[in-house]
Specification:
The protein has two domains: 72 residues, no CATH class; 77 residues, Nucleic acid-binding proteins (OB fold (Dihydrolipoamide Acetyltransferase, E2P)). It has four helices and nine strands, in the order ααααβββββββββ. A hairpin with a 2-residue loop joins β5 and β6. α1 runs antiparallel to α2 and α2 runs antiparallel to α3. The chain starts with a helix and ends with a strand.
Length: 156
Amino acid sequence: MDFQFWLMAFIILVVMEFLTMGLTTIWFAVGALVAFFASLFGVSLWVQIILFLVISLVVLVVYRPLAVKYVNSRRTKTNVDDLIGKEAKVVELINNLNQTGRVVLNGMDWSARTTIGGIIEVDTIVKVVDVQGVKLIVEPVITDGIINFGRNTVQG
């Protein structure tokens, strides 16, 4: 009778994994499969449960990092992901209080806000630190301790 339970658990866990594709239940399906074979050989229920738990945990700990690495390696970064860390030029005064500001990055015009608060002047070179919706979150580029605020510079 135990083998029917483990077989059903295995099937349900595999179906759940195919439905979610989240690498969440496959590890327990492997444990259920091992417990299923153990039940076919007449192993006691407690040993089957322990096998299920131990095998599931070992497979989870050992193989999940590898699986996640290879599954995520196929993930295509979007263009937005590539913007973080790039430099842009301020073409409209950035003022968070007035919700104004535009930058040009890779020939494209973007709305921009700043992380530092205050105002960033036109012609300032800024670095993208985040993207929130259609707005770039930027901060002035610091070169050799000097912050370039457009036509003005500030010694840092």
